[in-house]
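Retro notes
What went well: the complex prediction finally ran end to end.
Inputs used:
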Amino acid sequence: GIQVEQSPPDLILQEGANSTLRCNFSDSVNNLQWFHQNPWGQLINLFYIPSGTKQNGRLSATTVATERYSLLYISSSQTTDSGVYFCAAPTNSGNTPLVFGKGTRLSVIA
Amino acid sequence: DAGVTQSPTHLIKTRGQHVTLRCSPISGHKSVSWYQQVLGQGPQFIFQYYEKEERGRGNFPDRFSARQFPNYSSELNVNALLLGDSALYLCASSLDRTEAFFGQGTRLTVV
């Protein structure tokens, strides 16, 4: 099945700084999602981005399907951005809806 | 519109007991998936149901079972609980093989 790897595993930023989170996947995908997990455990949808670039406020994401990676950009980080960021993609067979990476734990310090 | 709702939010059970977790998908969504997330890891796929049929199953023992009802809500059942079953259980709904939306989870503690 597909393997999903995220980097870096941990990231500490000063408030206002920018960051880039990376997600590599081992097989071609037709669906890729980015999530932010809040301290209470809920997974918040950030992007559904099989390919191309999308932006939502201070966040943007780019997926280059042919090179099997996706990037999540956070600009002008805020303390509320802290938490764990996951990317996830389905297996090609479609039998596993989403395979998750291990996540990037982001801490934004005031 | 209501999002994905899960119940209960927290649960404490004793080893060997049985537990049932419930999930109501977003209205109109026919696919429900279950995931287990242990501390420090990403969610791991357990089951997917679509139109009341099991579409996929992850690498979990037979103590884990699930079903989907005619209204597309779903239950996850775990028998003979072990300490290692302590985790956050997440339910996701989607139209089909499209964007998935997650509930707030059920935090299960086995003592």
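What we learned: Chain A has a mean pLDDT of 93.
What to try next: split runs per interface for comparison.
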